[in-house]
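The passage that follows is intended for readers who have already worked through the single-chain material. We present the inputs for a multi-component assembly, then the predicted structure in tokenized form, and finally a short commentary. You are encouraged to pause after the input and sketch how you expect the pieces to fit together before reading on.
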Amino acid sequence: MDFSLSEEQKILKRMAGDFLTKKCPKTLVREIESSDKGYSPELWQEMAGLGWMGLVFPEKYGGGNMSFLDLGVLLEEMGRACLPGPFFSTVVLGALPILDFGNEEQKQEYLPKIASGKAIFTLALTEPGAEYNAASIAVKATADNNDYIINGTKLFVPDAHIADYLLCVARTNEQAKPEDGISVFIIDAKSPNIRNTVLNTIAKDKLCEVIFDQVKVPEKNILGQLNQGWSAVQRIIQRAAVAKCCEMVGYLQQVLEMTIDYAKERRQFDRPIGSFQVIQHYCSNMATDVDGSRFVTYQAAWMLSQGLPCTKEVAIAKAWMGQAYERVIALAHQIHGAIGVTMDHDLQLYTRRGVAAAVTFGGGDYYQETIAQEMGL
Amino acid sequence: MDFKFSEEQEKFRQDVRDFLEEELRQGLWQPSCDAWIQGYSPEFTKRVAQRGWIGLTWPREYGGQGRSHIDRLILTEEMLRYGAPAAAHWFADRQVGGSIIAFGSDEQKRELLPKIIRGEAYVGLGMSEPEAGSDLASLKTRAIEDGNDYIIDGQKMWTSCAHFMNYIYLVARTDPEAPKHRGISEFIIETSLPGITISPTIDITGSEAWAEVFFDNVRVPKRCLIGEKNRGFYQIINQLDYERAGLERLMGNYPLFDAIIKFVKETKRNGKPLSQDTLIRHKLAQLQIEFEVGHLLTYRVFMVIEEGRAPTVEAAMAKTYCTDFEQHLANTAMEILGLYGQLVAGSKLAPILGMAPHSYLGSKGYSLQAGTSEILRSIVAMRGLGLPRE
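Having made your guess, compare it with the prediction:
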């Protein structure tokens, strides 16, 4: 039992924190939020130079040979900085699945490109039904000689407008049980007949509608086994959920620190508002939720990293994070008072991102059902 | 980072479970809520003692096992999971022994620690008074020097299992002229001394879980003073951390959690088990989420203790959070039972032995004992987060 970071993780955290404080100030975050691209290509290349995209790849693919847990530490710092852009899409949703389920040829083709910052990936999973289950996958891939033809609509696909490649989850067998007829394809995003529409979102990130209209993909681009893609997707969702929790821990840590600083500085009735018991107790509640969030998240990340079964722990982490997030952000706003609900203030950046993160890769209701099953109910 | 216990620790957990399973198999007691604080059984305590499981972390030279606080965490976790009647030794094992080790004389250590370890000394806590609750330092019970003795006069409240205990750990004012924090001392005295009267307090559940202890001209020898005279308040602060640090603040009513899960699986409504009702599934899943977080917050406290630091802030945080969970558990059980939740132990048709209404009522005290949630939140805010006093 040991909840502390290793020396190596502490160094990674400190370096990432310092780099992002310098290179990703809130002025840049705001600028990117209102840009079409949704990221800074210069910053992207600098991050690649630091080895962040390939952090968890083996050295032979240009990676740093670190673990999923280490990636979690980095994601926490990215969350803290509100780093906009396709890091999560590329690494968590693109690279990790290729690393896990790709054949050697696919790994050699894509991973070095990702590590060097030359390829942006994303995952086209959810559809207009907006669910994370096998039955909801309706986008169809039909065999045609040595190719597959993809048709249908994916929704809430992050960063598809700038992606070089899409991992697309599609139905390849309509006769089988829902979870037995799904395959994952690596699709060149510049293929003809793919139409992207960027949606306007609360987090001002770039979620897209992606319409596939007779899109041709070579058979060799199937990731993993034909018709057995759902188990891969489950693993992708599980890791993405925990990676999202790591970002959220970063959001929460920053929100807590901002709020405590404000409570110490802001004076009313001739004293700092942080000297009032009501404010103190709010802050205590926030700190408890933040610590709980950290432990429950890192427990899940550690178990995933160790390859231990952790369906319940992952579900608990993601369900808890959404709830804790809402409590913490509500108190943060209450303590900040009216200034906190302006666009000029940084708090809103976290409020908007957090509420989106809470539902991404499964919200409370989804995971409560998983937990109930794990409890034997 | 490592979120698992070691193999030896898991082996120890299994040993404790085997012991408790065997006790249950022999029908020596029934699992019950609050058994750590109300389940007084010197026989059980002696059987635990025979295993060497009292004073697990204490130095070997005084008969302890010199083991880690994580081992004690595991031991207590299993005792609580099984709802075992451990009240006779719980307080001595949790906090009094540690205070004797930290502040007691060599003579006191040699006399008292082995008695506790053998399961023969049952120590109640004499801290709160009618006018000294959260503001403990305002206590009025006096201990005045008289030759080789102290003469004690006053009244303590909320002493758990007082009528069964043979010792009491007493905090009393030894210098009425000094500022209130600087005139307090600690004693450990026998409850059989002339002038001590114990009168039970009937709590909201109808139990005699606590008692008032009256001291009328009680003469105790000076060797009963623990540590330095007038430094008692500073000595006891650390003991309070231990008092609130443990899993008993999360798992005090754990038997109810087990029972309500079993109940929803076995009880049918409209031909279907309650456990298939979406609302009930989500209520119980929610408890599981909160329970897991409570575990982690409490485990952290023990890692801090193991590092040799005082877990003041961490224990305050964990206790506040965890007692909220215990209350939520009791409330949820009452919601699930509906009209049947009104039926108390002994009533015809009372489900799960009336455990839910009993725990519902009893849990109101959880956020008051050992530091109210308000006092604890202030500790977290001021000592942990550095918020200003004024």
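Commentary: The first strand of chain A starts at residue 121 and ends at 124. Chain A touches chain B through 47 residues (CB under 8 Å). How closely did your sketch match?
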